[in-house]
Amino acid sequence: MTLKLGSRTAVVISSPDIAKEALKTNDQVFSSRTIPDTSRTFNHHKFSVAWLPASTQWRKLRKVSATQIFAPQRLDATQALRRVKVQQLLDHVQACCSSGRAVDIGRAVFTTGLNAYQTPFSPLTWPTIVRIRAMSFRKLYGVPWKKLEGLTFQTFSRYFVLLIHKVHAGG
User: Fold this and answer.
1) Which SUPFAM superfamilies does the UniProt record give (predicted)?
2) How many other C-beta atoms lie within 10 A of the C-beta of residue 61?
């Protein structure tokens, strides 16, 4: 059986026996991911655990992620920091609402996520780094914002084509 998720087709296997057979003969096909074109721009598909096919390199990166970055002890140790970063996001949104300014949701969420992930490794947050270097956020470290937006939006829009169309049409 197939299921259409926006413009993507998903294969649904409902029988354990058929699933076992499909995974035995086609495990590499089912375990690989569709790589967005925007991730190829900076060769992220060659080095990112999110886009690598199942391989020795992927297993090594996944192991480091599981044991060092996303280990329960590490996550527990940084929970308070993550709460602070989310509260800062909420405060920013509230301040924008109070003053009648528009909220750049993509930038706000990206900054919050990046700060929550990167702060345990470095005491500097992105806004601090931007002030220190007096650089535009969108040009920081040469990362073109449009590429990051494209990667996120492209992934989202593949699954929610009708929703995106409706939003863009003003519905």
Assistant:
1) Cytochrome P450 (SSF48264)
2) 16
pLDDT tens per residue across span 80-89: 888 888 888 8
Q: Please state, in angstroms and rounded to a whole number, the distance separating the CA atoms of residues 42 and 35.
A: 13
Is 22 among the domain residues? yes
CB 49 within 8 A of CB 38: no
Structural domains counted in the chain = 2
Percent of the chain with pLDDT over 90: 4
Token pair in block for residue 82:
């993550």
Token pair belonging to 166: 């409706």
Determine, yes or no, domain membership for 166. no
**Cα distance between residue 163 and residue 137, in whole Å:** 29
> Alpha-carbon distance 90 to 88, whole Å?
5
Question: 81 and 119 in contact (C-beta within 8 Å)?
Answer: yes
Amino acid at 48: S
Q: Which range of residues forms the domain containing residue 52?
A: 38-71
SS3 5: strand
Q: State the pTM of this model.
A: 0.47
